[in-house]
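haha ok so turns out i had the wrong file open the whole time. this is the CORRECT one, sorry everyone. sequence first:
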Amino acid sequence: MSPKPSSTARSSARAALAAAGRIARRWAPPPRLTVSEWADRFRFLSAEASAEPGKWSTGRAEYQRGIMDAISDPTVETVVVMSSAQVGKTEFGLNLVGFHVHQDPAPILVLQPSIEMGEAWSKDRLAPMLRDSACFRGRVSDPKSRDGTNGLRHKVFPGGHITIAGANSPASLASRPIRVLFCDEVDRYPPSAGAEGDPVALARKRTTTFWNRKVVLVSTPTIAGSSRIETAWRQSDRRRFWVSCPHCDRPQTLKWAQVRWDRDDPESAAYHCEACGAGWSDAERWRAVTRGEWRAEAPGVAAAGFHLSELYSPWRRLAETAADFLAAKDRPETLRVWINTALGEPWEERGEAPPWRRLYDRREDRPPGIVPNGGLVLTGGIDVQKSPGRLECFAWAWGRDRQSWLVEHHVIHGNPYESAVWAAATEWVQQTWRHEAGAELRLARCAVDTGFATLQAEAWARRHPALVVPVKGASTLAAPVFAWSSVREAAARGGPRKRGQRLGLVGGHVITLELYGLLNLDPPTDAERAAGCPYPAGYVHLSTEASEEFCKQLVGDQWIEAKGEWKQAHATEALDGWKYARAMHSLVGLDRWRPAQWATLADELGLPLDATPEAPEPAPDGDGPPPAAPPEPPPAPQKPRMPIRRVGRSSYMSRLGR
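then structure:
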């Protein structure tokens, strides 16, 4: 018999086997997992970054499985996700990064709209995931370490790194090889990274050396025709998520047109099957989503594209979506945001202006230069014209529900390079306009065009810093109504001045679409006026000062849908004047005013809050003449009073920048 091994030998053998096992596990290839399988096995949601902290479950939002697995598909290079908010798109972006850190190491670039947003994403979303998911321990160094491998914008791990860049910074897109590119909220990127060109195209160039590269584009859309994510999605295989009706089993995609509720009661909102008409409860809708599937409209296209709306989200009740719609539907700007962020669809409006003759025929018979009842705040716009030289000055009054009134159209003739022209402009902007109720109001803000005689217009605006804003048209269709340019005037020794003059950017595309939509609103009929029916929200009131030429100019631009651009069909001085006045309306914050603020301002100024449509005279009964009105008693003698001159200043007006 062979001698029995000693306990020391047995211990040594066990240690050798354990060491061999560790070596084998370290060198063994990772399991073949998809991104969704990896997330279900290894991902933990952090308490500070998720409303549902704990172990990740793809089944909580089943539609995410198809998106994440497309990223894992070796035959797919580009994945496009056009979606609403509240569907978890940020989380599956984190899963993409986590998968490649743990399972398939590679150099990764995460591109955010700005460096500041990239740093916030790194600190608020990425760092908690790396900390709370145990699989990353030992792979990414502690953020407190001093070896420089775990910075805010650059993290190193075995086999790769994560770089967080801003689309507004060409330096952050400096040449480095990237295999995995994740572009978040691409519709919020600037049109160019400095002077280098389109940031998405620049980032794509970093992936050209990798045969197994992955490019993922994610965003809520903005305006049709100028939306990056919409363009990319239309060039993909265009997948939509299909669910089956819990009552008749008919497959369908969820559409907003099938959501219905009782009048003014969004809590009664329910989804109705387009086949059998049965209403679904929220629980039935969520259950149907867990059993749904993705179907491509253009199978065979290389890029995988996904579209999602809030109707699929397990975190949103239909009552909430319906309530948001009711709050947004009466204002084009808020409706646009709702369509983008709730339906995940680009804002589409043909911009078809009403016939100018219709505007001319509906003018209101009121004297020019008088602010009518309902108008509480004045803003102005000055359009600088080259030939013949002149300044076209427009004063518009604004009231509750964003109604607007043309108060005055004044032309200052002369060469804009001459100081006398700007002296006359000073007199115009500093004057007061008499209100129908007796007060006198001043302009809250006035925008001046800097497209011609630029230095003269800017110098004049500098002399009136609390009143006049130099502006120019924004360069992108997706630009907001008003935004400040980041460029300030230079200091004497070079470099920007801390308190230098800034230029305002006017989103002409958005404003023109809004104006044309408002000009298509109908005023109350005679019967409705007799019943006291108000004008619709946003109604544009034109006085008899609006000539035929003025009405033609107000609708002088036409939107060419096929080309995705504006074509000038007539002179547009009146249109530009409204754009500038509307931009100032946004600048002083009137878009955010609540009804109570308008009521308080009207009370402080002693002015009527609303414009009351004049009712027509009642028709006489029978065929005879109308009955004579009873004689009015003679007025009681009153003590003569001096007229009160009220200038529009109040606690609210002080917030308008005066």
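Confidence is low (pLDDT under 50) at residues 615-655.
again sry for the mixup
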